[in-house]
Amino acid sequence: MNKTENIRAYSSPQKLTEAMHSGTVLEGIAEVCDAEHNLWVNLGCMRGVIPREEGAIGMASGQVRDIALLSRVGKAVCFTVSAIKEDRFGKLYATLSRRDAQEKCQNEYIKKLRPGTVVEARITHLESFGAFCDIGCGNIALLPINSISVSRISHPRDRFFAGEDIKAVVRSVGEDGKITLSHRELLGTWEENAAQFSQGETVSGIVRSVEPYGVFVELSPNLAGLAEPKPDVFIGQGASVYVKSIIPDKMKVKLIIIDSFSANYSQNKKYFFTGDYMDYWEYSPKDSYKKIVTDFLEKI
Known about the structure:
The chain contains five helices and 17 strands. By secondary structure, it is mainly beta. The protein starts with a helix and ends in a 5-residue tail after the last strand. The chain folds into three domains: about 5-105, CATH 2.40.50.140; about 115-185, CATH 2.40.50.140; about 190-260, CATH 2.40.50.140. Strands 1-2-3-5-4 form a five-stranded mixed barrel. It has a five-stranded antiparallel β-sheet with strand order 8-7-6-9-10, with no helix packed on it. It is elongated and about 75 Å long.
């Protein structure tokens, strides 16, 4: 919302007209969806309307249902300016097209993506099997739950919330153009995560799994350790744990739970990878007998 293009375009009708002629993609909050299912947006210098049929690719043909418009109220939408007109009271308003912005994004950005490309994404909603992400102007990609982190979670809400901006990496591009994302490759290798902890320390974590043989405690999104069994410990609790040992060749961190407690607590996501493309990622230490890798050049 504070992008330079938005600030400039919304400053005056003249600047908004310039954005219209240049085809600039802008962003604003959909404030109202009226009875005809047109979306109304506050553009600062005037109001703008996205007619129902311009609300999304496939809306005019019936491929997309109206709930796609109703659910945008109170959220950011991208659009281009189609025209600036006067209403019957002589007040200026703009007609906008979200469909056009989506098509521009597909043609100029999304169709050029390939496996291994790092993208900016915004979480739109969460399901038990994964997170749906907006990767540009309302174009949606799926981030499966098993690709969110190496440390296992029971539901994507353990890691994300709707509206959160994240980074992700393109895992695959289907023949139909649908994109699947991954996230764990950006969160560091076993060694990078383990280097944040030392034997003999007592640190905090989150209980992710309780098994007869022990309790898995997440120390960071890409690192969990196994603690000795302890009664009255439950999934989702916070825990203070003593780091008993760190064993790289077995990719193990042995822990002792000092205390467990209820807490609204989540791990901060630290992105170890800061580039814009990766073709291969190896989580495992080189001397580990177990290998966890992602080959983005591999056909899946």
